[in-house]
Amino acid sequence: MTQSAAPAKKPRDIRLDFFRGLCLFIIFIAHTYGNPWAQFIPARFGFSDATEIFVFCSGMASAIAFGSVFDRHGLLIGFGRVTYRIWQVYWAHISVFVLAIALTVVIDDLMGGTGDYMRGLQFDNLLAPHAADALKGIVFLTWVPAYFDILPMYLVLLCMMPFVILAVRVNFWATAAVLIAIWFGAQMDWLNMPKPSWSAGSWFFNPFGWQLIFFTGFALMRGWIPAPAFDPRLVLAALAYVVLTIPLEWEPLLLAYEPLSQARQVILPLIDKGELGIMRFVHFLALAYLAVVAVGEGGRRLKGPIVAVVAKVGQQSLGVFMAGLILSFIAGPFLNAFGRTYFTVFVANAGSIATLIAIAYAVAWYKRAPWSKPPAAATVPPRPSETVTGVPATGARA
User: Fold this and answer.
1) Average pLDDT, stretch 116-126?
2) From its phi and psi, is residue 192 left (phi > 0), alpha (psi between -120 and 50) or beta?
3) Pick from 2-6, 138-142, 308-312: least confident
4) Which residues sit opposite 388 in a β-bridge?
5) Is 289 strand, coil or helix?
6) Residues whose CB falls within 8 Å of the CB of residue 158, separated by 6 or more in sequence, listed in order
């Protein structure tokens, strides 16, 4: 009997996986204290950086992972799927936070017990007199020190997602207007997450500002807004904007020419990272458009083994992000202890990147859960026949 074929699984978008993997490498490099390679990341040459890539791609990935669930199963199941992801990300944040605290204590002990690393990461708040408040802040996300603010921001965006999906079903443009109004409220410091009075380091990334770039990616992937088609005039405009912003961000030029530094101070609110200033947002959109044009329609120019490896890293973004954060905590002290020579810098960066790649492949293997699949049937060699076409075999008794 002929069985009906199962619907073909939609292939992954290589562009999404590749750029997300690339930005995870950049985030590791940027998070490693005193890393000379950080002088060559995109943030040194323009307003936006890998954070915009990560949040934008997360919005696109969320549209694929969760949007289809809402379409197929309705609001209740869709909401359940999102809350399950919130549960996963929350415990991922708590786990990596606790591990980083323990690792910092160990490193401080190895470095003579000065407590410099604890203070540098604001973990000294875990000591008296703020220990109780800090512990509560970890659990309830009211205390989010530097380097640990991306996942909490993502949690807020996930919480907003079901309501945005529901609101779009009523009216897309009204929903877009509300999201823009929320972003504007963040620019005016009207909307932000609560911060403890005893710590300056909390919620650097304002989720009410960053939701704009997340839901831009979400809307593009859902088809709520059309992706801009190739247009030479648009390419030139995007390229001009990207090039013209370099002098306002490249440190050697800012130090050499005082007028450039003064001009940057004037536009500082418009390029603010914590609130996602409008010029940062436009800079990222220009870069994203140029990147899409460069890789070709559907990412047809993204080929080869290196692209495949980077895309694999992008497919396992949560696990790789957590591992990259911990590795950056190890690589920084390593460079402090052994110096920042060409060799040690290469070992710290290349070794960590190789580890992240290995982790991505390991996580992918675990997700496939090969132990849950039935083992392949063992091939049993056929027993030798005593006769072949009725003729006795050699040595066989007639």
Assistant:
1) 78
2) beta
3) 2-6
4) 391
5) helix
6) 62, 82, 85, 86, 89
pLDDT at 382: 60
User: Mapping DSSP to helix (H, G, I), strand (E, B) and coil, where does residue 391 land?
Assistant: strand
Cα 172 to Cα 279: distance, rounded to the nearest angstrom: 25
- DSSP string of 85-150? HHHHHHHHHHHHHHHHHHHHHHHHHHTTS--HHHHHTTGGGGSTTSHHHHHHHHHHTS---TTS-H
Is the model's pLDDT at 267 over the cut of 50? yes
**Of residues 198, 223, 203, the one with CA closest to residue 152:** 203
**How far is 127 from 130, CA to CA, in rounded Å?**
6
Q: Is 46 exposed, middle or buried (0-12, 13-18, 19+ CB in 10 A)?
A: buried
CB neighbourhood size of 318 (10 A): 16
> Model-level pTM greater than 0.90?
no
What single-letter amino acid sits at 316? Q
Q: What is the pLDDT of residue 201?
A: 52
pLDDT band (50, 70, 90) for residue 383: low
- Read off the DSSP letter of residue 339: -
Q: Which two tokens stand for residue 60?
A: 């696109």
Q: pLDDT tens-digit profile of 192-229?
A: 887 776 665 567 899 999 999 999 999 999 999 998 98
* CA distances (Å), origin 110, targets 117, 122, 333: 11, 19, 10
- By the 10 Å C-beta count (0-12 exposed, 13-18 middle, 19+ buried), 386 is classed as exposed
User: What letters, b where the CB count within 10 A reaches 16 and e where it falls short, cover 115-151?
Assistant: bbbbeebbbbbbeeebeebbeebbeebbbbbebbbbb
- H-state helical runs in the chain: 14-31, 50-62, 68-110, 116-120, 131-140, 150-170, 172-187, 207-222, 232-245, 251-256, 258-266, 278-295, 305-315, 317-338, 342-368
Three-class SS of residue 387? strand
Tell me the per-residue pLDDT of 304-346, one tens digit each, with 9 for 90 and over.
999 999 999 999 999 999 999 999 999 999 999 899 999 999 9
